[in-house]
Write a structure and sequence with these properties.
Strand order of the largest sheet: 3-2-1-4-5-8-7-6
Order of helices and strands: HEEEHEHEEEEHH
CATH topology: archaeoglobus fulgidus dsm 4304 fold
Largest sheet: 8 strands, mixed
CATH class: Alpha Beta
Structural class: alpha+beta
Number of strands: 8
Length: about 220
């Protein structure tokens, strides 16, 4: 499925986001008992080259079942709020070579936590028509109170009087991550999935594996 033509300017990119935002599903609960496979998605950009890695894991024990990598010249300039236009083309190339289509994808980047509520995880979810969750490492926008220090504690992240996501403590006493719905997943399900996929590190295991793989390609 072709979701849209690729933009030639930042104005076109913003117009695409505004047109797509109403199509994103932030309200569907995800039955975690039915989730058998989870993909981690990450993109590394170096020397004007973008490398995407997708790692599909079995959720029960994080065994790697499939991996895919793609590399292309970075197709879009760095513009805050428009990062999905830099990263989705190479992610889709990698995704299309997977032998196993995962039940859900955890994306290294934002979902609903975005000025137009259509971050990378939302945009990708529309393209692949699969449940997606955004897991950001840094604060992008919105206000929040720091969550408690224990694993699993979280606080709402609010932007323009609307709760767009949550600030989640995945490890006790460690810097939190920023979790939001991507597509076809509500926030409660997104938080539960991230916690279920996080072990002794700050990031969920599928994203960690994708990050390592993307950064290892010369």
């Amino acid at each position: 499925m072709i979701l849209h033509d690729w933009p030639a300017s930042t104005a076109e990119a913003k117009a695409i986001q505004l047109a797509l935002a109403s199509r994103v599903d932030f309200d569907s609960p995800l039955d975690l008992t039915s989730v058998e496979t989870v993909a981690g998605v990450d993109v590394s950009v170096r020397n004007r080259q973008s490398t995407a890695a997708v790692v599909v894991m079995r959720r029960s024990d994080f065994t790697v079942l499939d991996t895919a990598v793609a590399r292309i010249p970075t197709p879009f300039p760095y513009v805050p709020g428009l990062l999905s236009f830099r990263e989705i083309p190479v992610i889709l190339l990698a995704w299309d070579t997977l032998k196993i289509q995962p039940d859900v994808a955890l994306v290294d980047g934002m979902g609903r936590i975005h000025p137009r509520q259509i971050g990378l995880a939302c945009h990708l979810g529309l393209w692949i028509d699969r449940p997606t969750v955004g897991v950001g490492k840094s604060h992008l926008l919105g206000d929040y109170q720091p969550p408690g220090v224990e694993r699993g504690e979280w606080s709402p992240l609010v932007y323009k009087d609307e709760m767009l996501g949550a600030v989640l403590r995945t490890r006790a006493g460690v810097k939190p991550v920023y979790v939001s719905s991507g597509h076809r997943v509500d926030l409660d399900s997104a938080l539960a999935l991230v916690m279920a996929c996080t072990t002794r590190y700050r990031l969920p295991e599928p994203i960690r594996a994708a990050h390592v793989l993307a950064g290892s390609i010369d």
